[in-house]
Amino acid sequence: MPPTTARFRAAVAGTGAIARGSHLPALAAHAEDVELVAAVDVDPERLDDFRKAAGENVAGYTDLAQMLAEQRPDLLLIGTPPAFHREQTVAALRAGAWVLCEKPLCLSLAEHDAVAEAEGAAGGPYAAVVFQHRYGSGAVHARELLASGELGAPHVAHCQTTWYRDSAYYAVPWRGRWSTEGGGPAMGHGIHQMDLLLHLLGDWTEIRAMAGRLVHDIESEDVSTALVRFANGAMATVVNSVLSPDEVSRIRIDCADATVELTHLYGHSNDDWVYTPAPHTAADTARTQVWQSPATDLPSSHAAQLGGLLAAMRAGTRPPGGGHDARRTLEFLAALYKAAFTGLPVRAGEIVPGDPYYAAMHGNHPDWAPRPATKEQSR
In sequence order, what are the residues at sequence separation of 6 or more whose Cβ sits closer than 8 angstroms to the Cβ of residue 365? Predict the structure, then answer.
């Protein structure tokens, strides 16, 4: 069990851009509760650069197992490519460390269930995935309003991650490959907005979808769309793309008494949330004023999520972003791919051991669509 009063001892696996740009500031924001004691990377030069930025007291390793054995950290922050997430998460859990891992936590439902088996039975250690968009004050406020029924019953929703990635982006060897990234923009980009949509609306019941490989010569898709039905009766559209020059991330939920809309790109603050009252509620200013006024203005960030994780470690309870919530989002993605590749609707709970989409997002059918025509072929 981690200490109940002393600062937690944390380590980082993977010292690239996400570790330096997001995990280091998050650790600094919670310096009273956690200290960084070690970092691991297979690239010694990148590791040295990270240690210079992190501080002289951070021990450096090129082997995760050695670091876990020698340092015995309470918490491991994982920022390596997705293909390593399951193995590194399981190793950390078995060494007694809690885990906060970049998305996706793993590449399939089978891998997720293997992670769950390695978690502690009670009191931890537990694993959580980085879904930082849940933790901005605007998202917390919107979820409270939706859950309380203050906005009325949700009816229609839209979830959009339309970004742009060029060929240089996919020149990185592990990107766009099923075995190393697990999927395309649904798995690697839109996962954040889809997770937030589920966080706001709750359990989904059915998905119908399409996917395409329209531009990039990669294994996975570069665009996907889906129609979703939720347990509360709401219906939603989902769009994920890396082909969109005008980049935006958006969630819109039309409820009986108001529309709530979030428009941003990579992170949000209170100003990015807009509430529009229905005609029959517009005159009730006392009510609508409450919608516009979260108690605080905390931007979504790794620091916001890390605070919740550290509190869970102190209490010995499952952290936000783990367990059922993390699996529900991964199951949603598996169902999206299955619906897109089979042309059939997929229902929650349908993908179980023995289903090909349980073991791999492509359902053992990696060559699922024609590759885009080359310039020579299109002439």
Answer: 341, 356
